């Protein structure tokens, strides 16, 4: 009698858990799935905690409702699969602001991650160099070309549009700089149209037309009770054996699959499996690949990451504007780069006692030294800077929390997508029963990570000989 096939998922973040659920749903019946998570907590950057007696996100706070083609996002599909659709809630306040010149100014509408398709809409925060966006008789990008977002937008719209709009919006997502980040990876829709259109205005409009939004349809969602419920449900529904505090230190190919070395050096455990989903950040992934594919490991391990800290304050009856939050351009000289007014943005979090939860994100790429401050110093600085931006002293917090995410956000330099594609192609040729998944390869955001994990699981199922459905 043939023993059940065994698949290891290394990494218990949302990409790894989504892979485990997909394996349970589509792999042959009886497949044994084990998730190895080096820390004591599942979910990766999804972490729901408690502050002042209320559930609050100490990591990612929401997910996109639609995918780039206009359909249901992979995150929403997973939520439905896990029976949590009735918990989806949407922001009750969607307008955000930019802190520019000491004032809060509404984020202009109709942009693509800050890149405008109508230059007249952004004049409240920046003065575009409109004359530079001329038709030179050829597409903005060549067929296989990738550039930094900042380089393209500066050349076409000038510095202010980048510094005051694009950079803070990208910084809010990646904690990186527009001048470093890949257009193809961070704005794939714009990259596609830039290979056809001759002006940046035309490329933005074409990208927007290719993915029209339904008027009034919510863009973002989260789960009542916190995104931790998504993590718990995915772990449960996967039917996988969950190994917490289980560091996989080595990974070597065998004639029948892979051998994992798990646990401390003094007392290692060796586990043989037929296939592996490697759903960990790039650097630990590179260490595990070093023994079997050293050249690929070097390419994977070259990806750099930014560190951030999220400072959440519980404030008694503060005077807050009716905004979801605000973004801060790096040129403003503040420590905080973004802030979210949780109890304003999310109606289900509002409290009858008037206690407000406000979160600020600190830390930009290559400015990690700012995060070396003690928690108390970070919290005090955030409180002071929030008061300055809002133009009114905020009350002293009754509670606070500092969540540090070291090496949390990948910095995708131009060519990233092609490098990942080449690594995956080489793995399929040499080691088809190993698949990469996660933000280090496919992009940040819950839907992208879910889709990445599911795609990796599908590749493993194919490599092992097909589906059980």
Automatic annotation (TrEMBL):
<keyword id="KW-0274">FAD</keyword>
<keyword id="KW-0963">Cytoplasm</keyword>
<dbReference type="InterPro" id="IPR004572">
    <property type="entry name" value="Protoporphyrinogen_oxidase"/>
</dbReference>
<dbReference type="GO" id="GO:0005737">
    <property type="term" value="C:cytoplasm"/>
</dbReference>
<dbReference type="GO" id="GO:0006783">
    <property type="term" value="P:heme biosynthetic process"/>
</dbReference>
<dbReference type="InterPro" id="IPR036188">
    <property type="entry name" value="FAD/NAD-bd_sf"/>
</dbReference>
<dbReference type="InterPro" id="IPR050464">
    <property type="entry name" value="Zeta_carotene_desat/Oxidored"/>
</dbReference>
<dbReference type="GO" id="GO:0004729">
    <property type="term" value="F:oxygen-dependent protoporphyrinogen oxidase activity"/>
</dbReference>
<comment type="pathway">
    <text>Porphyrin-containing compound metabolism; protoheme biosynthesis.</text>
</comment>
<keyword id="KW-0350">Heme biosynthesis</keyword>
<protein>
    <recommendedName>
        <fullName>Coproporphyrinogen III oxidase</fullName>
        <ecNumber>1.3.3.15</ecNumber>
    </recommendedName>
</protein>
<dbReference type="InterPro" id="IPR002937">
    <property type="entry name" value="Amino_oxidase"/>
</dbReference>
<comment type="similarity">
    <text>Belongs to the protoporphyrinogen/coproporphyrinogen oxidase family. Coproporphyrinogen III oxidase subfamily.</text>
</comment>
<keyword id="KW-0285">Flavoprotein</keyword>
<keyword id="KW-0560">Oxidoreductase</keyword>
<comment type="function">
    <text>Involved in coproporphyrin-dependent heme b biosynthesis. Catalyzes the oxidation of coproporphyrinogen III to coproporphyrin III.</text>
</comment>
<dbReference type="Pfam" id="PF01593">
    <property type="entry name" value="Amino_oxidase"/>
</dbReference>
<feature type="domain" description="Amine oxidase">
    <location>
        <begin position="14"/>
        <end position="461"/>
    </location>
</feature>
